[in-house]
Write a structure and sequence with these properties.
D-Maltodextrin-Binding Protein, domain 2; 4-stranded mixed sheet; about 50% helix; 12 strands; binds beta-D-glucopyranose
Length: about 425
């Protein structure tokens, strides 16, 4: 057969079998805006994509790079303003309520699936309240991250002559000094506002305890924000910053994680999505790396719940997007997905029945500790929403905190008392 006759044969075959008959027709498309773009994060979100596609829907990937999600939120806002929101977007905490108040989230799409799948009994009330608006689910919670972790490379610690993970700020500084003296980066870090404030909230928790943390970031109590404990927080923060990578400006969190994984640095302060990078590098928790609570915070758990919110769209029902949103939501809270996603992502499941039975699912030692602490701290004031990860305040207040903290860390002349005053003032005007 020459090439012309081969082409003719193909054309006539194609007319016998139109594309829709060869590839199964999609039941509907859902565009998902999220910021899971590092190697480990991508491995996790790909699990959701694959399942939604297996169920016959088309996944349009709306990934927006940028850890912590500020860039993704900017993109989402501009798309919403121009009348072109995606079907689903990663939104968290109080921000979900703000989006729902604009009328852009769909309060009906998840009604049946949440009832059929018994979400109310699967989820802690704190969690379901976050993703409900006026009694209706407008988002599906995906997982729970703990933010107040310290990640350690034990081989590096050994080379620097450090024999145990620090449990107090003094021990942390002593370990930092030894790491520096041995020629390592003591604390891998990325100089981006959300990363600076992740460290800041750790220090607040360590110095003030959970009650002080709540007064500062949940109650936004002016006396706490400007008082002597906050001055101490800024003093300690300055000291912590002296151990940070001097080349940190603009560095992404996953590159900082890579420095600890490769043995260039000894430690990183980051939520447990950092574990996704260790997992992607095939490293084993408890052997190749250690996860411990940030010094002085082992009785607290700053939580960060990833959620996927569903948007309204005038043709959603007709073109299958509503069905795709429902499928995605159902998959998300399914037992299999909860397990595989969190193992890849470094988080723990959001389902109560799984949290109290982590052994059964093969979770590693870091995840087991996280689940145990989550359940224990939920019974005290130890469980607190992460400010740096959009769980405690509005984005306006969070932005005001980010500015004060990042300016403070980067200004060699900055003074802790002035910083505390600035913090109070900035929050008052952002409220
Ligand atoms: C999100 C995580 C994400 C991390 C880094 C956090 O705010 O909750 O899911 O992995 O940012 O991008």
């Amino acid at each position: 057969m020459n090439s012309i006759t081969r082409l003719a044969a193909l054309i006539s075959l194609a007319s016998l079998f139109p594309l829709s008959a060869i590839a199964a027709e999609s039941k509907g498309t859902v565009e998902v805006v999220h910021w899971w773009t590092s190697g480990g994060e991508k491995a996790a979100v790909d699990v959701l994509k694959a399942q939604v596609e297996k169920d016959g829907f088309t996944w349009k990937d709306g990934a927006v790079a940028g850890g912590g999600g500020s860039t993704a939120m900017t993109v989402l806002k501009s798309r919403a303003v121009s009348g072109n929101p995606p079907g689903v977007a990663q939104i968290k905490g109080p921000d979900i309520q703000e989006w729902a108040q604009t009328g852009l989230l769909d309060t009906g799409a998840l009604k049946d699936v949440s009832k059929e799948e018994k979400w109310d009994s699967l989820l802690d009330k704190k969690v379901s309240d976050t993703v409900k608006y006026e009694g209706n689910y407008v988002a599906v919670p995906v997982n729970i991250h703990r933010v107040n972790w310290l990640w350690i490379n034990p081989q590096v610690f050994k080379k620097a002559g450090i024999d145990k993970a620090p449990t107090t700020l003094e021990e942390f500084y002593a370990a930092g000094d030894k790491l520096k003296a041995a020629g390592f980066i003591a604390l891998a870090h990325g100089g981006q506002p959300w990363q600076d404030s992740t460290v800041f909230e750790d220090v607040v928790l360590s110095v003030m305890g959970s009650d002080g943390y709540k007064k500062a970031f949940v109650d936004l109590d002016d006396k706490t924000l400007t008082g002597s404990d906050m001055v101490k927080v800024f003093t300690e923060l300055k000291k912590v910053a002296t151990y940070m990578d001097p080349n940190r400006a603009g560095r992404d969190w996953n590159l900082a994680a890579a420095d600890v994984i490769s043995g260039k640095a000894g430690m990183q302060l980051m939520g447990d999505w950092a574990k996704s990078e260790w997992t992607a590098a095939k490293k084993i928790a408890g052997k190749d790396y250690q996860c411990v609570a940030f010094p002085g915070t082992d009785r607290s758990f700053t939580y960060n719940i990833d959620s996927l919110a569903v948007f309204k769209g005038k043709d959603n029902a007709k073109n299958g997007t509503t069905a795709a949103q429902q499928d995605l939501a159902k998959v998300t809270l399914g037992e299999d997905f909860q397990k595989v996603f969190s193992i890849n992502k470094g988080s723990i499941p959001v389902r109560n029945d799984m949290l109290s039975n982590m052994d059964k699912y093969g979770f590693d030692s870091c995840a087991q500790t996280a689940a145990k602490d989550f359940l224990a701290d939920a019974k005290t004031t130890g469980l607190q929403p992460s400010m740096a990860h959009n769980m405690a305040t509005t984005l306006a207040v969070q932005g005001a905190i980010f500015d004060v903290v990042t300016n403070y860390i980067n200004d060699p002349k900055a003074d802790p008392e002035t910083a505390a005053k600035q913090l109070g003032k900035a929050i008052t005007s952002a409220k």
